[in-house]
Amino acid sequence: MKLTIDGLAVRFPTPDGGTATILENISLAVPAGELVVLLGASGCGKSTLLNAVAGFNPAYDGAIRVEGRLVRAPGADRGVVLQTDALYPWLNAWENVGFGLRIKGLPQRERDARAEQALALVGLAGKGDHSSWQLSGGQRQRVSLARALVADPEILLMDEPLGALDALTREQMQDLVLDVWRRTGKTILFVTHGLDEALYLATRVIVLAGRPGRIVVDEPSSFGRRSLAPGVGASIKSTPDFAAARERLRAALFEGAA
Ligand SMILES: Nc1ncnc2c1ncn2[C@@H]1O[C@H](COP(=O)(O)OP(=O)(O)OP(=O)(O)O)[C@@H](O)[C@H]1O
To answer: Which stretches make up the ABC transporter domain (predicted)?
Structure first.
């Protein structure tokens, strides 16, 4: 298994000296190459779950393993993309993408070559010398994705990565995510609020609900793979199949939120 989560619980201290349990009894096994989309009402703990897998919160109960190794800190085996791009404005795209490799001590020539490869993967070949202020919001998220990919992680963790983009760019970026997934075969955990986005990308949909958050839906979804077939793409969103799946998912979300 690429990712296993066994009996995960996450608690935070509250201002009155108590403890708030945000997630409880979360168990999950994700085989390599799946594109798992995580949905749920605001505040149900999606980011908390993703952050725990990223290693940002080592004080969880239970066990999180990536390729069998226990997660206790951030690591190069997990690439993270957040809603805000968090690029260093004083660095160009190559330098932003290669930043982690610099810390690892890779020589500049190798860093630049790998950064260029990662930029090409996200459709930004030849744009490496651009500063972040010269790039559009969508392009900056592409750079963030390249930065997450450059160390060849075991798993990509994406927390509402397209949430801040305009509708058209968002649709284009959904296709980019699918293209990168197809070409790299990466395992992806993707948080979104968008029902269409969730169904369009996913090979598996997970819905979190309640307080503490728990998994109320965990089922395979065929659209992530079907939309990759030649000539299909976004047109799949207007099929009766897709509409029916969207309605089912919407009902599950409302039920969970109730
Ligand atoms: N470091 C922290 N300390 C205390 N409480 C926290 C911390 N991080 C998250 N929380 C709380 O955990 C709950 C879940 O937050 P989280 O951001 O995981 O939800 P979410 O489902 O991702 O929400 P949204 O969809 O709005 O982004 C919230 O009530 C939040 O206030």
So the answer is: 3-235
C-alpha 162/C-alpha 171 separation (Å) is: 9
Instruction: Write down all domains in the chain, each with its CATH number in brackets.
Output: 1-76+189-258 (3.40.50.300)
**What global pTM score does this model have?**
0.95
Q: What backbone torsions phi and psi does residue 27 show, to the nearest 5 degrees?
A: -130, 140
Cβ contacts of 234 within 8 Å, gap of 6 or more: 171, 174, 175, 200, 227
With a cut of 0.85, is the ipTM above it?
Answer: yes
Question: Measuring from each residue's beta carbon to the nearest atom of ligand 1, which residues come in under 6 Å?
Answer: 12, 22, 40, 42-48
User: Among 147, 200, 149, 148, which residue's Cα sits nearest to residue 173?
Assistant: 200
Instruction: Read off the pLDDT of residues 73-128 as tens digits, 9 standing for 90 and up.
Output: 999 999 999 998 889 999 999 999 998 888 888 888 899 899 999 999 999 999 99
Q: How many whole angstroms from 120 Cα to the centroid of ligand 1? A: 35
> In this structure, what is the dihedral angle of CA atoms 40, 41, 45, 46, given to the nearest 10 degrees?
40
| Cα-to-chain-centroid distance, residue 65 | 17
Q: What is the pLDDT of residues 178-218, one digit of tens each?
A: 999 999 999 999 999 999 999 999 999 999 999 999 999 99
Question: Two tokens at 253?
Answer: 């979300």
- What is the whole-number distance in angstroms between the Cα of residue 33 and the centre of ligand 1? 28
How far, CA to CA in Å, does 205 sit from each of 41, 94, 131, 185, 220?
14, 34, 36, 18, 6
Gap from CA of 18 to ligand 1 centroid (Å)? 16
The answer for residues whose C-beta is within 8 angstroms of residue 240's C-beta and 6 or more apart is none
Distance CA 95, CA 244 (A): 45
